[in-house]
Amino acid sequence: MSRFEYAPAPESRAIVDIKSSYGLFVNGQFVEATDGKPFKTVSPASEEVLAEVSEAGPADVDKAVRAARKAYDKVWGPMSGKDRAKYLFRIARLIQERARELAVLESLDNGKPIRESRDVDIPLVAAHFFYYAGWADKLEYAGVGDDPQPWGVAGQVIPWNFPMLMLAWKIAPALAAGNTVVLKPAETTPLTALAFAEICQQADLPPGVVNIVTGAGRTGQALVEHPDVNKVAFTGSTAVGRAIAKSVAGTHKAVTLELGGKAANIVFEDAAIDQTIEGIVNGIFFNQGHVCCAGSRLLVQESVYDEVLARLKRRMSTLRVGDPLDKNTDIGAINSAAQLAKIRELSQIGEDEGAERWSPECELPAHGYWFPPTIFTGVSQAHRIAREEIFGPVLSVLTFRTPAEAVEKANNTPFGLSAGIWTEKGSRILWMANQLRAGVVWANTFNRFDPTSPFGGYKESGYGREGGRHGLEAYLAH
């Protein structure tokens, strides 16, 4: 049979107007930093410098927190829920209006395929603001008492893997509950957060309700440890989450932590194989594996192991790695040189420890940060690649014989964020879901998100929930 020739379908960069430099967003205005050095944000697909961004030092963070406190005391806290809802709804509509621009900007700054930014990330961002706009005047039904009150000023630190979506997860429920916000985006992906600051201006959001301070670890630490921050929300690595938990211990601050994962994707012999293969691919190669709940451990029942592995390899051979702005791209660029080095290191360790490595033939671009989709077979539970979060497009494959063995292997991890089950038996799905120590369990699908559903983990995957009524509850004093 003849095959169609590949033809690039690039999205235009012209829709995005990236400024040469950006300040901090404090009290409704972009301002210059006073005690930090500027840094550059680069496109991981080309290593091109996109913009110079201000670094917020402790004095800048203090100004942002004071602006948030004033806005909380004078405007946002006293405002009715009905009026707060109007602002959230307006923000959601502006996100929809600027969706194409935001998707291109996200792919440029992050490296993820435009198809994911356009079809998943940005629509979910708008959906979260619409959803929490509906909650803003119904807080007494959130399950925390008849007269729930906001915490006050929320300090929020988000990661680089879903920059705009994590912003929505944090800011939308915080504002709906009546809090004001100081948010620090990741240093490698600040541009969509700064675009969101412009949207806040467009929406005429009162000054100080949302503040954006850019920078690296020093900025985040200053925000988390600021004495006038009432609520801390963090998504990122378990190591940083531990440090945050220690720093706020003994203080008045409320905390939610959404940390790392090492999810098991469990395939039983009666699973619909074609559907399952798509779920496996989506579970680990979506967003280059830069997903805290990625299905990075594949557990396959022995009786179908050979068939699943053969079909998985065939499907992986069709994945296209390349330009994130090409609408045909399946796997984009690794977010940074540091993350690429970590993926390479752990993959080499996997080989050194005796696992068998396989990747389909694919030509990687000459510039930028790239890693091919990779699977390891012959993996034991003692291997580091089966225990540590790689946060890249790397899948470890293990086997099991019985449901009990699958549960034991799936739970044999310090993490507990998510899991997937593939079977046609509803009773088995329910039994497995009750046995698995994971905050989110998907059945015959993977990486499905909805603003109405809570998300979060157990053990070293953190505590607290985001999304749904539970995510709103985290921003209300009990």
From TrEMBL:
Active site (UniProt)? 258
Q: Which PANTHER family match?
A: ALDEHYDE DEHYDROGENASE-RELATED
Q: Which domain of life is it from?
A: Bacteria
Q: What is this protein called?
A: Aldehyde dehydrogenase family protein
Instruction: Report if keyword Lipid metabolism is assigned.
Output: no
Q: Which family does it belong to?
A: Belongs to the aldehyde dehydrogenase family.
Source organism lineage? Bacteria, Bacillati, Actinomycetota, Actinomycetes, Propionibacteriales
The record, for Gene3D superfamilies, names: Aldehyde Dehydrogenase, Chain A, domain 1 (3.40.605.10), Aldehyde Dehydrogenase, Chain A, domain 2 (3.40.309.10)
- Sorted alphabetically, which keywords does the UniProt record give? Oxidoreductase
Q: Which Pfam family is one of those matched by this entry?
A: Aldedh
Q: Does the keyword Oxidoreductase apply?
A: yes
| All residue ranges annotated as the Aldehyde dehydrogenase domain in the record | 30-476
Checking SUPFAM superfamilies in the record gives: ALDH-like
Which InterPro entries does the entry link to?
Answer: Ald_DH/histidinol_DH (IPR016161), Ald_DH_C (IPR016163), Ald_DH_CS_GLU (IPR029510), Ald_DH_N (IPR016162), Aldehyde_DH_dom (IPR015590)
Supply the CDD domains for this chain.
Answer: ALDH_F16 (cd07111)
